[in-house]
Structure formats: structure tokens, C-alpha cells
Amino acid sequence: MKLLVVEDEPKMVRLLERGLREEGHQVDVCTSGAVAVEQAEAVAYDVILLDWSLPELDGLAVLRRWRERNLRTPVLLLTARGTVGERVTGLRAGADDYLVKPFDFEELVARIEALHRRSGGHDVERRLGPLTLDARRRTLSRGSEERTLTGREFALLQELSGHAGDVLTRSELLSTVWGTGFDGAPNVVDVYVGYLRSKLRELADEAVTIQAVRGVGFRLVIADKVEGKR
């Protein structure tokens, strides 16, 4: 598995990094909450280990930002806070599991494996006509040809393909893909649609396209799929 560890305590970082690599996992480390917010969107991780007590931007704030931005990667919250109320707070903020420090390393590994199984593991794929959208690897492929998608490109294509044939407005896409707290320019949707169109054209020619509906938004059209109505 590819894991992201978000932890600022050096001794804990060394323990987790060494132990998880010995278990055969790929491990990236972030010691800053602000950096972790962007890192998790830029790289496709299977599971994220997140410390609650980070400096500046704490773990709960990081977690809420991920969920607002529609990042669905399973998150295991690590913390010394172990009361029932604190556990409930962490889970309601968007954590998928919660482990109190100090913990047994074998239990940590077992919880990571359980989260990975629960999220669908390696088999999260969606067929788009002749193309395959791989959620774990964030790739779009046709046979042996493959294109890697950024986190935002993947989220946008996943949303459009989940409603193939239907028109999704720019405001709907902004809310779902960029999060309700996004305060940038609305034309960012058009920019990312352009990126996706280029990759779709390279792999599928006109078999899978993103059509603009003037004054409304966009829809994904698969040549052999009957279009929906909206």
C-alpha cells in the first residue's frame, strides 16, 4: 500500500516510517498540516495516518479540509486523546478509524489493512466505454496506454462519470470537487475540463467526451451510452 504519515514528532515519525516500510508499504511523511492538505490531493494514497496534535493547523482542521474538498481516502486518526467525547469528535470530523497513543504496532497494521479492505482495496475501477478509470492509482487507461490524473482531475472525472449523460452545473462541480469553502474563480472548472478533454482525446478520440452546455455546465458523453436527461 501507499501510505501518508502526517506526524510532527520525530521519534514517532521514525518508528512509523521504519515499521511500515518493513511491512512492505510505501511511506511518505508530512510534518506540517498545511503541507499535508495539498500532499494528499496531489498523490493517490491508500490510507492516511493523521496525528491530531499538529502545530499551526491541527489534525482535525486538516481532516475537515480534506472532506470539504471531497477527498475520500481512508484516514486513521492517531492521538493521545482517548476520552469517548474526543473519539466521537474525531470520527465526526471525518476520520474512518481512531487509535490512541501509545498503541501496539501490530494493531496499527491490522487497522490499516482493515481500512484498505473496507475502501475497496485494489479493485476500485470504473468503465467509461473503452476506458478504465482506476480510483486507487488515479489513472485513465485504454489497453496498454495510460494517463495519470492529478487529484483534482480525477475527482472531476469521477463526478462527471458518475452522472454520465446528465448535465452538472459549474456550481455543483465546484461544490463537489473543490469543496463548499472554495473561494477561487469559477472558471477553474473550465480549466480542468480542458485538461481532461486533452487526455480523453489522446486515449479515446471521440468515444468519450465532455460536452459544454452553454450557460449551464458540462456533461460526460460515452458514445455507446444512452444520454440521460436533466
How is this structure best described in words?
This protein starts with a strand and ends in an 8-residue tail after the last strand. The chain contains 8 helices and 12 strands. With 230 residues, it is of the alpha/beta class. The longest helix is centred in the last third of the chain and has 17 residues, at 188-204. The chain is elongated, with a radius of gyration of 19 Å. A hairpin with a 2-residue loop joins strand 8 (139-142) and strand 9. The chain has 2 domains: 2-119, Response regulator (Rossmann fold, 3-Layer(aba) Sandwich); 125-222, Arc Repressor Mutant, subunit A (Orthogonal Bundle). It has helices at residues 10-22, 33-42, 59-68, 84-92, 105-118, 151-161, 170-178, 188-204; strands at residues 2-6, 26-30, 47-51, 75-79, 97-100, 125-128, 131-134, 139-142, 145-148, 168-169, 208-213, 217-222. Helix 2 runs parallel beside helix 3, helix 6 crosses helix 7 and helix 6 (151-161) packs across helix 8. 27% of the residues are buried.
Please render the helix and strand layout as text.
Layout: E1 2-6, H1 10-22, E2 26-30, H2 33-42, E3 47-51, H3 59-68, E4 75-79, H4 84-92, E5 97-100, H5 105-118, E6 125-128, E7 131-134, E8 139-142, E9 145-148, H6 151-161, E10 168-169, H7 170-178, H8 188-204, E11 208-213, E12 217-222
Parallel strand pairs: 1-2, 1-3, 3-4, 4-5
Antiparallel strand pairs: 6-7, 7-8, 8-9, 10-12, 11-12
Could you give a quick summary of the protein structure above?
Pfam families: Response_reg, Trans_reg_C. With 230 residues, this protein is α/β, with parallel strands linked by helices. It has 8 helices and 12 strands.
